[in-house]
Amino acid sequence: MKLLCPRVITGSLNSLNKGAVDWGFQGLLAYGSENVVVVVEPKIVQVIQALEKHRSPVVKVKWARENYCHDIASPYTLRLASADTSGHILVWDVAAATTRASFSDGGRPIQDMEWLSQQDTSHDLLAVLHPPYSLVLWNADTGTKIWKKTYTEPLLSVSFDPFDAANVAFLGQDCILLVEDFSCHKVPSSNGRKFYISNSNAGVSGSASTGSLGSHGNGSAGGTSALVSAAERRAGARQMIRNKVKMLVMQEGKHSKIEDAGAVMLTDCLQLAYHPAWRHCLLLVYPREVLLVDLHVKQTVGIIPMERTGSPFVQVFPCRQRDVLVCLHENGAITVRVRKIFASPAPTPNEPGSPYMQIGESNVDVVYELRCQSDPMRLSKQSRVFSVSACPISENKFALLLGDGRLLLWELKTVEHAFAPHVYNQLPMSPLHTPGHRGPVDSATYPADWTFPYKCNVAGPQATIADMIAPSNNTAVEGSTGSRHDVCFKFLLVGMLSGAASPVTVLRMCPPLTTKNWNVYKPLLAAGTMCGSVQVFNLSTGTLWKEFSIHTCAIRGIEWVSLTGFLSYAYPTPGGNSGLIKNELLLVDINTGRTRLLRGDKGVDESPMELVRVSYLKQYVCVVFKDNPMELWDLRSFTLLRQMPRSFPVITALEWSPSASVKNLKRRHESQESADSVGREQTTEQGSPASAMDAANRQEGKPPGAAKEHFVFTDNDGQLYHFVVEGSMVKEGSKIPADASMGSITCIAWKGDMMVLADVDGNLSIWDLKNRISRAIPTDRGWIKKVRFAPGRGNMKLVILYNDGVDVWDAKDVELVSSIKTPKDLPKLHDIEWAASDRPMLSSEDGCIRVLDLLMRSSCSPIQHHDTVEPIFSPYLLPGRASLSLQYHLQHQPWRDEYSLTMTDLVDTAEEFTQRLVNEQVDVLDRDVRSYLPSCRFGVAERCLTVGRLFGDESEIYFWTVALYYLRAEKARPMSKSDSFAKRQQGHGDVFVPRGGTTVHEVQDLVELDNKQRSEAEETDKLWEALRGPALDRCWDILTDGATFQKNNHEQLALHESKRTSYELTQQCVEEMVLLGQGDRAVHMLLETDADSEAYYADCLRACLVATIRSSGASQSTIKLVATNLIANGKLSEGIQLLCLIDKGMDACRYLQSYGKWNMAAWLAKSTLDYSECLEVFKRWVEHLCIPTVNLKSKAVLILLSLGQFNKVIEMLYSMRQFRRAALFIEACLEFEVLNISSDNDALIEAVYLEYGRYLSNLGNKTAAVHYCGKAGDKGQQLRKELDILFEQ
């Protein structure tokens, strides 16, 4: 057990704390409780830090993002930003409990804030939204304001587009503000575009009306019934879409408003957020529905309605790894909704195999099926639902925060679909599918000569939601369906964390630590509450150990009788004229929970208890009433020794003497212990008797011999009385007249030879009994409510509670040590106590219990000083060198004969501490992770991804997820065999092999092979195809493979087409179809234009143009000239369409890039061009991303990975000084046999190994550094000689 350190135990939350909760990539959860920031370790369900420097309630907390490469210069640190209602923002070093920066914008309140992570310029940028309409960008490391932008509309919240850093959406009071020029380098120049939500049936001129479809159906002579029926179905479907779809209508005039009856008010909108798994998708959360708005077409494409009897929405968390929405409801239930992907659309009659569909013939609606729901909760007014947060690494763990301070931790699990009826007690819905390849692999599955992938007999850990269900765009993975199975979701409550039950009325610390009880001692605090429960906290960990609901009214006082038992008394607030109530005095055993009514049937209709004091040796207890005489009870036999007569003085303060005759008692007690058959632990200090509960069970109810004890009390006149108690005898001692300088005595404290009396006027009278000296000290603070001496021999520190604060005095030197005034420094105080000899403890009306330092300046301390119920795995809590050593140790160990989890490489004495820390962290890892790391099937790449998830390293997770997929994809199907990709990572990778030409592998196929060899090659290809795994999901957007990207685009276009409700949306669909080469469908849509529309003639001509160009290649030079002129005159979209019509997509991409439309050019290239042309477009994009004004090299690396340009990836990683990642990527490529070391790249690879060896030597691992020096050529040998000299010294 560590020494008690300053900490805060929080209680119920303030209503302003509602949005202040965040689960970071660091694996820790932070939330605001009043003006305290609480940090929780979810795995062990314990508060590991409580940060208090705010002076007003906390409204926002945000963990810093970890989307950057960590090294010695940028180690793993715990950074957290918090903001309060007064506008102050603090950036914390959570591990050290210190502030790194503090800043504010003139004290203005804060609506929202977010760390910027989609740029490489700095990982310290924090965007803050201030009411009514200001956005400020701060350098959170220095507290410097970078720029400030003031908009024109009141703004409530902000959301940054996860796919494009330039896009930002603001939720206003009556509009949505979209900004498309956000940059961290300069202030946005525009004020954004304002949009209002309106029902689509408000009407827009020129829309493709259903009447045209109906008249077209009746145009034939009479027509057949089937044709008419089909037209009616299409018309009905179109009208149904209009009724459901809501549109974003842009404000055209300065003062124009949407005043139609179908307008949707944004004042009821609870949340606005971009969907991280779906580009251009914006979520709008209302109490009774969730709208999914496609910003590309500016209208809703999906609505999630709440059932009529369902609980309203409170918050929605959109998952990134899978298209899943996690919804929080008012009744405390959490629901999981998974997007349902319908079967492939039926091809149109005009275009066989087209991915588009006729309206009404196939369902392309965006539907989120309810897949799982947690149990609803019984909530009271004090325990309302506040917020939910999800683990961003796994996205299958959720934290539910309630208003009473409780934190519930839910985990999403999967069960076999066949057992779903037994789990849910209902009919099972359609199953979800697992990704496959997570279980152990039979060695017989691989060919005998295969050494990679490695044979693994251990199932991979299901660490994320991506490991639990397959991507939505992979209904079946080619070749791998056999390893997949059907599952359903279920929720498990894995933890609950409770704080102090507000308000806390009484604090009482257990007997102090002594040499007699140190082996069994726990620093337990008993806290009484208004609801009648007693909470017992373990102050070494700050956790709620036990809670006893034993009283029916507010608890008035607690007195410990041993280390395992306490007395508590309670009574309701007196009512009526009589003032009589029912007193409750209970004895509680905290080990068993057994309670005993001390006074038996007494306590009904009597005067309230004012004091209960247990003697120093825990033998007796005095019960003082307001109007009744005092009672003296024997705690050994639970008998009433004496009830004082009616003439007994009215007691205002009472205290027992700490000195007693214990020598004879010790002798008698030791003889009795030797005679007993079962030994009893001595649980109180100074060799006092065993606990009162054990004494009650002694044979014949006979108590042991009693020691003489003394107590003193004062009456209304201030006269002091002295009484002696020995056994059953109570003797009255001396009387001391009242001090004329003192008023009515309110409390007495007695320790050793020092006695302190306090009065209603704020005066202290300190008596030195040994020297017979008294001193009067006026504090000028008013009525003194409580005085307590600190524990510890010779420690004469004194804590004093006033109406307006608390003081700490040194009674020996008679000097003030520290002081707090309320409510200036803290909220109003309820009680005081000592947690340890130098740790005063306070309970306040905000529900918090604070353990302070002696100067009462700090209530927080570094995490390393805190005890935890279990060891914590967190690299962020280690020193920088230790966390980086742990990282490389877990990722790859080629310098060893075999992979080992135990580090033994650091032989230098100075590194022994680092090695011990690393091994301690390894021991804390989960069993499934420890089993799988040595035998990862896909070697270095998969192990690095697993370690990245363990570390919560956002950058590592993104890089190795993409790298592992494309390494497996390249091994499964080389790009030379793909329709759109060619193998390009070796030698001059930019040389393009035409589709129609003879590729390298096709030449090899001309070799005469016998049937056996051909069969073995085919089996090997099939096996690798099965090991390829599911494609990257939608969240990776442009980084997905070509086939998946095109499939997603086709589904999106079909969705847009099905949601057409206006002429403008139809034209957008036509433009996309022309760009994608879907000319026939574009012609069909152009001919749907209403004859009454002004654009009817122009659309007919456009239809003719599209049809003519596709049927004839003549006049392409003229069309290209026209397109060029259009682009030069500002008609970029029209010119691009013409270029795509004549198959000049490469030229179209160049024009788009010239005009700064980089994302559009990439989308067009990946959708329409072959590999060589697409590569050229993307290479220009990569060059643009690497210029200093853009500085998105990390994104450029991922793009090169998706193109299979592995040599270029290594080169860029080296230029970014990410030597560790570059070296490990080379090792992974060599394992997959997709990289040949040749004269073109050997110098680069040696340079990478050299720098990685230097990196390892800086971390103290000579063995690993020497290994990589051997791979680094001549310079590596030179470095090795330097290392020999360095480590010898």
UniProtKB/TrEMBL annotation:
Comp. bias (Basic and acidic residues): 697-709
Entry keyword Repeat: yes
Entry superkingdom: Eukaryota
Coiled-coil ranges (or none): none
Keywords: Repeat, WD repeat
Disordered as annotated region, ranges: 662-709
Chain ranges of the WDR11 TPR domain: 926-1241
Domain spans labelled WDR11 first beta-propeller: 16-178, 253-340
Domain WDR11 second beta-propeller span(s) in chain numbering: 517-793
A Pfam family assignment: TPR_WDR11
Signal peptide: none
Protein name as it appears in the record: WD repeat-containing protein 11-like
Lineage: Eukaryota, Metazoa, Ecdysozoa, Scalidophora, Priapulida
